[in-house]
Structures are given as structure tokens and as C-alpha cells.
Amino acid sequence: MKRRHIRTVILAVLVLMISGSFLLTSCRKRYKVDYCGRKASFKHARNSYPAGANVRLVYYMIATDTDYYFYLDDEPLNYRLESEGIIIEFTMPDHDVTLSIDHKNSMDVVYHKVDYCNQQSWYENAEDQYIAGDKVTLLMDWGTDTSYQFYLDGEWIEAIFTDDERYLVIEFIMPNKDVKLFCEVESLSPPGP
User: Fold this and answer.
1) Which end of the chain is less crowded, N or C, counting CB atoms within 10 A of the terminal residue's CB?
2) Is the pTM of this model over 0.70?
3) What is the pLDDT of residues 17-54, one digit of tens each?
4) What's the pLDDT tens digit per position in 115-145?
């Protein structure tokens, strides 16, 4: 009989501990998530979460050729693409938050101009504009006894010779803006008599 009583007491204590921890976690203060009108685009999205909760959301309204950006209170969130959608995870802070989404058509091509400072004819293959992110390679026929310094938006960039030393090669990655390329030329020949 005593044994049965001990088992009942132990079982009651365990039930109280489990229900107590459940009550403590479910009674924690909850904070709201503002989905900016896109809550339906997330699987399993809730209106609120307790502070410290690990929040896992699945954004499944994915369009092709579109880049997505997610922000929690204007801070960028990391995400990953899985078969069920875009997975976003964060720890719920102890305040209400705003989860916002930005997207951009990745098929849009943006061209930016190069201002050659009236020196465009010096380059064998210069074009007026390039796609942001493209590698730009310019070839310049060079003169002997002359020093060339190249500047892209005021920053010095290195020029190298082709293997046959016929051309100077200037390379850079086209930034996401218009740029100015300037060549400073200095004669190295001694002045004449």
C-alpha cells in the first residue's frame, strides 16, 4: 500500500511540474508580429509569440525571377530557400515587431554610364554603358616614354600590359552607379633643347 502511495505522489508531482512548466511558458508575455498585410503569405504564422521563442516562418508566395528581402524592424533577416518555400527564422524579442518584405524583379537589367572625361577615343573597345556587376576590360594603345595613371571615381586603379605589350589593360567591376574614368598622362621624355 505504501508503495502505491509513493507512486501516486511521484506521479502527481510530475504532473504538477509538467503542467506548471507548460503554464509558465504559455503565460509568458506575448508580443505581436505585424506582417504588413502579408500574414496569409506565411504558413503557420501567428499573431504573437512569447519573448525568446524561436520563430520559424515559411513564405510560400514565391514568384519566379524575383529576389526577396525580409526585414524585422528594418533590420535584414537571413533566409534560405527550401522545397516548402523561403524559410525565415528569428528569436522573438521582448517587444512588438514588424516583419516586412521587399522584392525586386531579377530580370531587370540596369545599365550605368562611364564618363571617359573626353578620352573615350583613347580606348580600343570603350562602350558608353555597362551592366552593374559586369567586369569591364578596356584596352588602350599606349605611347612609349609616357606614364599613365588611371582613376575610377577619383580612386587609382591599376593598369597592366598585355603579354605582347601592345596595350594597357584597365579592368574593374561596374558598380551599381554611373562612374567617371580619367587617365592622367605624363611625358617621361626629357624636354627638348
Assistant:
1) C
2) no
3) 776 555 555 567 999 999 999 999 999 899 999 999 99
4) 999 898 889 899 999 988 889 999 998 877 7
| The three-state (H, E, C) secondary structure of the chain, written as one string | CHHHHHHHHHHHHHHHHHHHHHHHHHHCCEEEEECCCCHHHEECCCCEEECCCEEEEEECCCCCCEEEEEEECCEECCEEEECCEEEEEEECCCCCEEEEEEEEECCCCCEEEEECCCCHHHECCCCCEEECCCEEEEEEECCCCEEEEEEECCEEECEEECCCCCEEEEEEECCCCCEEEEEEEEECCCCCC
Amino acid identity of 94?
A: D
